[in-house]
Amino acid sequence: MAIVDLHLHTRASDGRLSPRELVNYIYRRGIRYAAITDHDSTEALNEAYDAKEQFSELTLIPGIELSTEVQGGEIHILGYFLKWKNQEFQDILANFRQGRVYRAEGMVSKLDQIGIKLDWQRVLHFAGDGSVGRPHIALSMVEMGYVNSVKEAFDRYLGRDGPAYVERSKLRPVDAIKMIQSVGGAAVLAHPSWVDNLETNLVPMKDAGLVGMEVHYGNYSPEMIGYLARVAATFDLIPCGGSDYHAMGNQDEALPGNAGPPESTVEQLRASAHNNNQSVM
Question: Which pLDDT value is given to residue 281?
Answer without folding.
Answer: 45
